[in-house]
Specification:
With 481 residues, the protein is an alpha/beta fold. The protein has 2 domains: 230 residues, 3-Layer(aba) Sandwich (Aldehyde Dehydrogenase, Chain A, domain 1), CATH 3.40.605; 186 residues, Aldehyde Dehydrogenase, Chain A, domain 2. The protein is 42% helix and 17% strand. The protein has 17 helices and 18 strands. β16 and β17 form a beta hairpin. α4 packs across α8. It holds the Pfam family Aldedh. GO terms for molecular function: acetaldehyde dehydrogenase (acetylating) activity. This is Pdup protein.
């Protein structure tokens, strides 16, 4: 009877192991993994990265279904908290609008492609078989902005976990509380579904120094940085493979053939979205002279307030642009009405965007204004519109748009601008996945790697493309080789 009992126990253990969902197995995994302060939060960079590395080594050996379970747990878990995250982000950062943040969170959560992009590529022929598969880098060091804290945590995690990686996330100090909440919740959701801890780690007290230490750590295999020019520069000189989301100053070009009603609606709808803190938002309008007056009228009808007095325009520039040439943080992401009131400019109604008719050299045109200030520049013909668009975009190769019914103008502008994102006859936020654009054409894009050339990132961005050769086969079309 004793032998029978032992045999039965062994059979039970084997059955649980083969089923892949043994609760005892999950418990054992969690017991040997470091916990730090709990749910992915640590006090020390080295401890955090060591925990993420251990988790990645476990994740790398698991089947693809394990990654899918983790990703589905993230989507199911965060779903009920979308409004909470939007409100908390707005309260902590003081930037943007709750409504826009809800839209961005839904986009990150439900439109970020996962493992479905990682299907292998296979070639067969007389020389045998060649197969390419997409495999993990390891622990990825990610840095997030204060403008999209929870969205970046969610978007990065889905893409990077889909690729088999784990993540060290450097939170922006300006959004440290809501970022920590998101990190803790994500780990909670993934652990409950899979038994794996520390797929995403972060520090209880984020700092510039800790991000710099992380970037130099030998166990960080790759960097993905969304933020200002300084932090992107640090990533690019780290000696590691880096995906960098850099600056942008997207022009919205409008030629004489455009549907002005549609152009005005799209431009203002997109520019007012989250008070223009998206790097993809239209930052200036370049319009062809024959339709300038009509466009000015239409954008005002769509919510823009036209500042006419040159002294007010000059004061706005002096007030909102700091001595260092960057937008003043006091006004970044703030409502148009707040900026107008601070400038002492009287207005009527409830404007959502501030505009003014200026020349191309005005600092409000040349500066990436991360606030709802949208200057308008008039040029005599389309060639001048395109030339000015190229000049004010500043060679960032980030985002540009055109409103036109001339296919040659659209084609020429898309070619010459050479931006990671180019939108024709639509709001630029459409290219980030926000709105009803359909799957893939509307896939969420929060890390837009312009300096390093990857463009809108996906799970495939965070994998190594590895080649496997089998010279003696495998082809179903022939046998003799």
């Amino acid at each position: 009877m004793a032998d029978q009992s032992i045999e039965a126990a062994i059979r039970k253990i084997l059955q649980e192991e083969l089923s892949g969902n043994a609760s005892s197995s999950a418990a054992t995994t969690s017991e040997v993994q470091p916990e730090g302060l709990g749910n992915g939060i640590f006090t020390d960079v080295n401890e955090a990265i060591a925990a993420a590395k251990q988790a990645q080594e476990i994740l790398a050996d698991k089947p693809m279904d394990f990654r899918n379970k983790a990703i589905q747990a993230i989507k199911d878990g965060f779903g009920p908290y979308i409004e909470y995250m939007a409100k908390e982000t707005r309260d902590e950062t003081g930037m943007g609008t709750v409504e826009a943040k809800i839209a961005k969170l839904k986009n990150a959560l439900y439109n970020t492609p996962g493992t479905e992009l990682l299907q292998p590529d296979v070639e067969t022929g007389d020389g045998g078989m060649v197969m390419y598969e997409y495999t993990p880098f390891g622990v990825i060091g990610a840095v997030g902005p204060s403008t999209n804290p929870c969205e970046t945590v969610i978007n990065n995690s889905i893409m990077m976990i889909a690729g088999g990686n784990t993540i060290f996330f450097g939170a922006h100090p300006g959004a440290k509380n809501i970022t920590r909440w998101a990190v803790e919740k994500l780990n909670e959701f993934v652990y409950d579904a899979t038994g794996l801890r520390n797929v995403l780690v972060s520090l209880d007290t984020p700092s510039i120094e800790s991000v710099q230490q992380m970037m130099q750590h030998p166990d960080i295999a790759m960097l993905a940085v969304t933020g200002g020019p300084a932090v992107v520069h640090q990533a690019l000189i780290s000696g590691k493979k880096a995906v960098g989301a850099g600056a942008g100053n997207p022009p919205a070009m409008v030629d004489a053939t455009a549907d002005i009603d549609l152009a005005a609606h799209n431009i203002i709808t997109s520019a007012q979205f989250d008070n223009e803190i998206l790097c993809t938002s239209e930052k200036e309008i370049i319009v062809e002279a024959p339709v300038k007056d009509e466009l000015l009228t239409k954008i005002q009808q769509n919510g823009a307030f036209l500042v006419k007095d040159q002294k007010d325009i000059d004061h706005l520039a002096e007030m909102t642009i700091g001595a260092n040439g960057a937008p003043d943080r006091k006004y970044v992401g703030k409502d148009a009405t707040f900026i107008l009131e601070e400038a002492g400019i009287s207005y009527t109604g409830h404007p959502t965007v501030i505009t003014m008719d200026v020349d191309k050299d005005n600092p409000l045109v040349k500066t990436e204004m991360l606030m709802p200030i949208l200057p308008l520049v008039c040029e005599p013909d389309f060639d001048a519109v395109l030339a000015t668009g190229l000049e004010v975009e500043g060679g960032n190769h980030h985002t540009a748009s055109i409103h036109s019914n001339n296919i040659q103008h659209i084609n020429k502008a898309a070619h010459r601008m050479n931006t990671s994102i180019f939108v024709a006859n639509g709001p630029t936020f459409a290219a980030t996945g926000v709105g009803d654009n359909g799957y893939y054409s509307g896939a969420a894009a929060l890390t837009i790697a312009t300096p390093t050339g990857e463009g809108t990132t996906t799970a495939k961005t965070f994998t190594r493309r590895r080649r496997f050769n089998c010279p003696q086969g495998f082809s179903l079309r022939s046998w003799e080789v």
